[in-house]
């Protein structure tokens, strides 16, 4: 059976032959103005980004600064007024689950389908043999730690488990990039930390590029290779912070001076923006 997992760990992946920058995300001169029934909102301005394959990048900024808008544009769900976005060198003109998997804050699972059927659903639009669809979905559910829960319906799963199903669904077409918009915001603090660890484990194992939007400075510093800080609306990039904390990240790191310094640097920007 062909495995969907591309490399057992990051060290092996570095030595493996490279696919040509499939997970490279590039944003050039991106700006966006919403015009809803004459109410004009300048949401984003002059965004330039280069995200290398396999990086874990977190986007933070004050409420309403355009984080979700930027992510929606990178997924191809919304077209920007100006500028361009490419993934793997090809423009993102529309959602393309073969290139970018997406996970939202709400799990948005079909309540009448089981976990297995929810994960399989995107594959039903492709002409894949039924057995292969089922095998892929099972493998993805196992990857997110839900082996044995394939036949459960969403109402039989906890909030964290539902988000695991969403992540499995986002990864079912094996895209090189996974984008997540505040995926753990609705979860309690303990589950949120556990899910962060789970996501890091999945990222380490699969080598995807991850782009993650959050309000939480702690989550940003805990997860990221790099934190992108946006200004208040119209959102611009005001800082890009390399997170030099060692991996694997641990809960104990959150109480170190390095962690506090990172949070302080992000908070400095956010405080300034909020005061403007
Ligand atoms: N579909 C839309 N039509 C009109 N205006 C919109 C639309 N979507 C977002 N906006 C506006 O664009 C701005 C940026 O919104 P966006 O949701 O991208 O910000 P955000 O940083 O993700 O916010 P939050 O952190 O509160 O979730 C806001 O002023 C919002 O009101």
TrEMBL record:
Pfam families: ABC_tran (PF00005)
Taxonomic superkingdom: Bacteria
Keywords: ATP-binding, Nucleotide-binding, Transport
Keyword Lipoprotein: no
Gene3D superfamilies on file: P-loop containing nucleotide triphosphate hydrolases
Residue span of region Disordered: 1-21
Domain named ABC transporter: residues: 25-257
SUPFAM superfamilies the UniProt entry points to: P-loop containing nucleoside triphosphate hydrolases
GO MF annotation list: ATP binding; ATP hydrolysis activity
PANTHER family to which the protein is assigned, alphabetical: ALIPHATIC SULFONATES IMPORT ATP-BINDING PROTEIN SSUB, TAURINE IMPORT ATP-BINDING PROTEIN-RELATED
Family membership noted in the UniProt record: Belongs to the ABC transporter superfamily.
Record's protein name: ABC transporter ATP-binding protein
Organism: Teichococcus wenyumeiae
């Amino acid at each position: 059976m062909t495995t969907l997992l591309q490399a057992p760990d990051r060290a092996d992946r570095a030595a493996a032959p490279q696919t040509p920058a499939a997970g490279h995300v590039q944003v050039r001169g991106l700006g966006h103005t919403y015009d809803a029934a004459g109410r004009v909102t300048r949401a984003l301005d002059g965004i330039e980004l280069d995200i290398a394959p396999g990086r874990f990048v977190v986007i933070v900024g004050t409420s309403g600064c355009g984080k979700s808008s930027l992510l929606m544009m990178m997924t191809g769900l919304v077209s920007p007024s100006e500028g361009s976005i490419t993934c793997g060198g090809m423009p993102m003109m529309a959602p393309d689950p073969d290139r970018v998997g997406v996970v939202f804050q709400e799990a948005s699972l079909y309540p009448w389908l089981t976990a297995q059927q929810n994960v399989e659903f995107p594959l039903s639009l492709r002409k894949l043999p039924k057995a292969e669809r089922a095998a892929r979905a099972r493998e993805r559910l196992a990857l997110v730690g839900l082996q044995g829960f394939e036949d459960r319906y969403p109402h039989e799963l906890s909030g964290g488990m539902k988000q695991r199903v969403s992540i499995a669904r986002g990864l079912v077409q094996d895209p090189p990039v996974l984008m997540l918009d505040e995926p753990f915001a609705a979860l309690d603090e303990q589950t949120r930390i556990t899910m962060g660890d789970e996501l890091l484990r999945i990222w380490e194992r699969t080598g995807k590029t991850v782009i993650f939007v959050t309000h939480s400075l702690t989550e940003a510093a805990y997860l990221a290779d790099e934190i992108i800080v946006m200004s208040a609306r119209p959102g611009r990039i005001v800082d890009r912070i390399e997170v030099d904390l060692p991996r694997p990240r641990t809960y104990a790191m959150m109480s170190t001076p390095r962690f506090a310094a990172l949070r302080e640097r992000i908070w400095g920007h956010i405080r300034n923006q909020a005061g403007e």
